[in-house]
Amino acid sequence: MKVSPSIFRLYDIRGIAGEKFEKKAIEEYEKWYGKFTGINITPEVAVAIGKAYGTVIKDRGGKKVIVGHEIRPYGEELKMQFIKGVRSTGIDVIDAGVSLTPIIYFSTAFYKLDGGVNVTGSHNVYFFNGFKTMAKDVYPIFAEELQKMRKIIEDESYAFGEEGSYEEKSVIDDYSKYLLEHNKLAKKLKVVVDSGNGSAGMFAPKILRDLGCEVIDLYSEPDSSFPNHVPDPEDVFQMEDLMKKVKEEKADLGIGIDADGDRCGIVDENGEFVYADRTLLLFSKDILSRNKGKKILYDVKCTRLVEDLVPEFGGVPLMHITGHAPIKETMRKDKDIIFGGEVSGHFYHAEDYFRIDDGVYSAAKILSLLSQTDKTFSQLIDQFPKTVMTPEIKLPCKDEVKFKVVKDLTEYFSKNYETITIDGSRIKFSATSWGLVRASNTSPYLTIRVEADTEEEVIKIKNILADQLEKYPEIADKLDRRKVTSHTGRLGFV
């Protein structure tokens, strides 16, 4: 069967889903992604992906998996077609219904299943959908394994067997019970929860109420058109309503959850956005107080303070490439990693959880930590040194161009500067300043981030990077040299 190679991305399967595409949607797609190339995840493709996934699980000796779906157009239909394909290979399937990605992660580990899949488009706009796939122990199926699935589909070399069984099962009670048993509040807290009209709104507010919080709902009603903002909790521009609401309600904290629930973002009691790598420092200090000598994993986009402070906390810092799949893989191979975090808001808990990224679990953990002190969240964060840092600047760049840009910049800057190349090019301009250019592995853009001691230094480094980036016509007109925060857009290109 012929299938679009483009849907098999590095960390998951993702594409344009459905049976028809309206003119308005095509116009919106082309505004950001270039010429519309057509729907590439149809119900027929979903069946084929299910067959390929079932084949991979069967080859690993697996027998039973769990599958859920996020609320968005065609989500349930794609799930049912996918399940049809999986069952045709002889694999038994539990249908979790509407779910969150971390609930599927949890279920795979908690019930000791042989795999799990969530049908999700994550925080992407409504016409995207796809499949996050994992094997036993929530071991990610990604990269070469996804290409293996593609080859199985193209060759139609599926496993066959007696049709696998099918059962519907709600797992939310077990998930909630586990979360509440492992997180306790020492005092009641008032929190605003912004679910961004994603599926997280069906679960996160109730769980945090059961934890003992007074919860103010913001955009909890699922609506996959995302009418208020894109549910990306690490894009400060998508968090503006949450920032205002926290101040209005005089809340202790604001928490944003992305559409499929595996990431969270934090707003302090003053309505100020808190970067995820600063929250990572707070988590690290707390966790290492009980786990001396363990490793803290952090992605290449994080502040230099992680490398500086984690040893002071009693741990070992480990810089890593960005991405939930390779991070989960590394944390399964290296049991000394007690915690991990990314600038994107993925936090991976190993102390009392399954080494998975879970936005709701992370929110509960943060609230538990905050409740045990008389300090405000801003005071907890302000214990760490301050630097000047840009947000994660997302610069639109076509897939066929972005990797060449990074390669060229690496060659140029490595001649005169110390350059870390584990994921893109992180250029060390001084002992306290650096700039990063990397190609996103999931979307058509470059990621830029800069850190220094002063805003003047940050702007200087941005301009040094811009001098090289403007050589490429595809991105030259999108550069803004003047501001630390620049280039905003509906899809969170900042």
Overview of the structural elements:
36% of the residues lie in helices and 21% in strands. With 494 residues, the protein is α/β, with parallel strands linked by helices. It folds into four domains: 5-170, Alpha-D-Glucose-1,6-Bisphosphate, Chain A, domain 3 (3-Layer(aba) Sandwich); 174-270, 3-Layer(aba) Sandwich (Alpha-D-Glucose-1,6-Bisphosphate, Chain A, domain 3); 274-381, 3-Layer(aba) Sandwich (Alpha-D-Glucose-1,6-Bisphosphate, Chain A, domain 3), CATH 3.40.120.10; 388-476, Alpha-D-phosphohexomutase, C-terminal domain (TATA-Binding Protein). Strands 1-5-4-2-3-6 form a six-stranded mixed β-sheet, with helices on both faces. A hairpin with a 5-residue loop joins β10 and β11. The longest helix is centred in the N-terminal third of the chain and has 17 residues, at 43-59. It is globular. Residues 37-157, 180-271, 277-386 form the Alpha-D-phosphohexomutase alpha/beta/alpha domain. Belongs to the phosphohexose mutase family. It comes from Candidatus Woesebacteria bacterium RIFCSPHIGHO2_01_FULL_41_10. InterPro entries: A-D-PHexomutase_a/b/a-I, A-D-PHexomutase_a/b/a-I/II/III, A-D-PHexomutase_a/b/a-II, A-D-PHexomutase_a/b/a-III, A-D-PHexomutase_C, A-D-PHexomutase_C_sf, Alpha-D-phosphohexomutase_SF. One of its GO terms (molecular function) is metal ion binding.
